[in-house]
Structure formats: structure tokens, C-alpha cells
Amino acid sequence: MNVNKLIAILVFSVLISCSGDENYVEVPDENSEGIVDSLVIQQIFGSNIDLDNLANYANQNIPDYITKDNTNTNVITDAKATLGRVLFYDKNLSVDNTIACASCHQQAFAFGDNNNVSIGVNGVTGRHSMRLINTRFARETRFFWDERANTLEEQTTQPIQDHAEMGFSGQNGDPALADLLTKLEALDYYQELFQFVYGNTTITEARLQESMAQFIRSIQSFDAKYDVGRSVVQNDNQQFPNFTALENEGKDLFFRSPNQNGAGCITCHAAPEFDIDPMSLNNGVIGIFADATATDLTVTRAPTLRDIFNSSGIINGALMHDASMATAIDAIEHYNDIDATGNTNLDNRLRGGPGGNGQNLNLTIAEIQALEAFIKTLSGTSVYTDAKWSNPFIN
């Protein structure tokens, strides 16, 4: 324990003894900043957060071949990402203190959900929760399956203001976002964290958005088998020396266009980030969860193909917005034979040849299995275990 923390503990003990109330904590004035702060932070977070030794969010290693970056002006700092981590995991951001962002975006599942449809404070949400892997390294900067949020910053507070998800909608009897800000201002640890990060205790929606977006953008996965192979070759078209024959075959199919007997996945999911082309339209999946008669043509976004599986090869929950595909094989088979009937928003790259009746790749079972093997090489390890992305609250 350093001298400053020892002094802080002694001061804290004196304050308690003078107050006669063991729950009493004096609000620090401008000249005592950091003394009571660290005590309250330790009480809530233990060793998970140390304001004197912040986790590294700002200067993580990024491979040289990764070129996309949608950070723009909201540059990641260790302090703001730390605040974002607390907000991301805090159930106080829901009206009944039962749901956090992390409830639907779980580290164990690549910051996605293994439930088909996530549970909110007022029932189920409308769509399967999207994985939040490598959101910083994507050409598509709009968010949600239907791209209704213009930026990641805007996206972060929309679930909070959704009646079903976290409940601060301000409509039909729900409290509003302003009520959440008041709620957070009453929590000692946010007084201290905002003072530490911003130099004052003012809590605003813009600050919530800024810090949560920084934390989410910090979540990266570049230690996959693919990355090991890519780092020792000049480009993706070469055989990766660490791949099996099946994995190299799957990679070749992934990159080769349909008119060359490939699958052409690369046209919508460009390597090495494997993010979605922002110009993509609907992918042929138009279902609505639990309603076999309804259709949804507005879904045009998708997460990166990285970490569909965990490091043990187990899928991180069902695929597609309606969780209609339980396996990667199901998804590949969907792209192998797409029916364009009635889909006025189907991406032109999936309409097939003359007539535009839908794509038919004529992939064999062996080729489909090879594609699955390649997709598994896109899964990392540290994203599931790194403490800086874990729940900071003491359980």
C-alpha cells in the first residue's frame, strides 16, 4: 500500500469516528480530491479498478494489416474507457436495477448473447443482440441491425431509453433519461469517477455516450489463428502455414468469387477485419422472432465475422437478427441457396445471375465444411478472459 492510500484510510477512519455513523462519508471539497475517492472506489470495485494504475485501453497492440478505424474525434483514453466499463456493467442504468448493457452483451459470448432474444426489464427485446467485437475496426459506422443509430455514441444510450430493454423511455409512465442522470448523480462512485475523468461531477448523456463508446471500441480481438497466419504472409491469397488443408481450402473459397467457383464472402465481409460493407442491403433473412407470418426487410447490418465461435470452437449463440440459424453451417447453407422472392431490399450481390431470382453457389457439403473451418480460425482468446473488459463490481 502506498503512502497516499494509507493517509486516505486514516482520514476516512477519523471521519467515521467523528460522525458516529459507519455509513457516513464526507463529500470531498476541491482541496481533498482523491482522498475519499479512492476509498469509495475500493469499497465498490476492490482491486478491479485502481485509479493510480489504470488498465491499458488506449495503447493496445493493433496488427499492421488492420487499417480501418472509425474512432474519429472520440479518441480512447484509459480514464474514460474505465468509466465506460463501469457504466457498461452497472445495472443501475435500468429502471429496476436488474439489467446492464453487459446483460445482453456478455464477455463469455464475445460480448453477445447466447439467448435467442435478450431479456429486458419489460420482457424480451425485438432482436438477437449483436456481438460487440472490433466495432472500432469497421467501415460501417451506423449501429443496430437496421442501422437506425448514426454512430456508436448514439447507440449506447438508445437501449437505456427503450421501454422493453432498460426502461428509461420517458413514455407511458416510464421515467426519462433525465431521471437516470439524477439517479447516477446520487451514487458516490459516479461522483468520484466523473470528478476523476472530467474534473467535475456533472453527469450528462453526452458523457455517458462518450465513455461507453470508448470502452466498447476498446474491445478488440486480434489473437486468432487467422492473425497468427496473416502476420507471416504478404497477403490473404497465400497459403497460411499454420492452417490445416481444410482451413486453407475454406479461406480460398471465402476469397474466391462465385464466377470462379468460390463463395465470394469477401465482397461483403472484407478481410482482415471481416466487417460488413456499409453499402450492404438485406441478406435474405427477413424473419421476426417468434412470428412465422411476419417479415422484416429493414435489417441490413451485421457484426464482424470474428468470434462467431469461442476459442474452443463453440458457437457464441444463434446467428442472424432473428436467431433463426443455430449453426454456422446453417448460415453458409442459407447463402448457398437464396430465394429472392418477395424481397425488395435484397442485396444485389445475392440476387444471382440473369433473372435475379437468388444466389445459388452450388457448394458441396465438403466445401461448406471447409468454409466453417476457416470461419473458426477468426476466433481469438483474450477477449473472453482479459480482466480490463470484465465486470468491475465486486460480486
UniProtKB/TrEMBL annotation:
Residues 79-188, 245-379 form the Cytochrome c domain. InterPro entries: Cyt_c-like_dom, Cyt_c-like_dom_sf, Cytochrome_c_Peroxidase/MauG, Di-haem_cyt_c_peroxidsae. Gene3D superfamilies: Cytochrome c-like domain (1.10.760.10). GO terms for molecular function: cytochrome-c peroxidase activity; electron transfer activity; heme binding; metal ion binding. GO terms for cellular component: cell envelope. Its main location: other. It comes from the Bacteria. It is found in: Cell envelope. Keywords: Heme, Iron, Metal-binding, Oxidoreductase, Peroxidase, Signal. PANTHER family: BLL6722 PROTEIN, CYTOCHROME C PEROXIDASE-RELATED. This is Cytochrome-c peroxidase. It comes from Aquimarina mytili.
